[in-house]
Amino acid sequence: MRTPRPLPHPLSDPFLVEQALSLGVTPGRLRGSDLRTPSRGIRVPKNTKTTGTPAELAASCRPYLELFPDAVLSHTTAARLHGIPLPPSYRNESFLHVTRPPNAASTTRRHIRSHRSRLEDFDVVQPAPGLRLTSEARTFADLARILDLPDLTAAGDWLVSEHGRSYGQVRHAVLGLEELRSYVNGLRWIPGIRTARRALDLVRVGVDSPPETYLRLMLHDAGLPEFRPNMPLLDAAGRPVLWTDLGCPEFRTCVEYDGAHHLTPEQQMKDHNRDLLVSELGWHQVKVSAVDMRRGSAWVAPIVARGLRLGGWVREQGVL
After folding, report:
1. Considering just the CA atoms, what is the radius of gyration of the chain in Å?
2. What is the pLDDT of residues 182-198, one digit of tens each?
3. pLDDT at residue 266 above 70?
4. pTM here?
5. Residues 6+ apart with CB under 8 A from 29
6. pLDDT tens for residues 111-167?
């Protein structure tokens, strides 16, 4: 079998047939066995990854944006490019979401899910040449049409998360909570807007990961007292000694989500020392693992409730 002739360097990523022809590539070469056709007018070298990292995704999007100058990447596609956390089923979609003006001509191209909406200039950002996508705030609002309430809340928590602790890196919010709330409250007549506003009522500043969001919402839905994310535990002089994933200061109870990294011997030693310090500070600590979370609220909520009762919480009628 003949080895296909190398393509010109600019064509190492997904490219337009029109671009290749302008560089002297013949129509016969564009039918080579080393190329695939995701959609008419576009070619992709078969060894090119197109759905992995944000950079790979961006490269696969550019030809479509060249074909449709009025299109903007949106919904879960924009979320992946922004780094907004999504459930596993949305992280490697084989199609792209684009939003076009209400009067745009319809298209039935493969690998494209087209939406119609009027976007203002501030709804669109261009983080790199040839890349147009909805802003983080507009992407959050559009995700309300697709995600359920816990997943949308986790996306909102990620956008507004910020903290400066005595260890680790300072985290800066992508958007301030009030900025995001003001934007969403100003939107009218877009699908999912009520879900977006419900999620914003549940969004909190300081959350480090989606599992912490799901755990907090699980405790909220069970009717337990509110737990604050990234809660500092103070010494007798009022100085922060350590921070806990979720804390209820009223009943001096804190909850730690133990992810996979807590299984290493080094981390287990750190956790042991931390557990002693939490006890010395007069707090009741509850640990919840990924296995616990898979068992659901009926398993997790009573575990946390025991810690709350040690802190003086009295179960209300109808709770647990």
Report:
1. 24
2. 999 999 888 999 999 99
3. no
4. 0.88
5. 4, 5, 7, 20
6. 899 999 999 999 999 999 899 999 999 999 999 999 999 999 999 999 999 987 766
Q: Rounded to whole angstroms, how far apart are CA atoms 95 and 206? A: 33
- Separation between Cα atoms, residue 96 and residue 77, nearest integer Å: 6
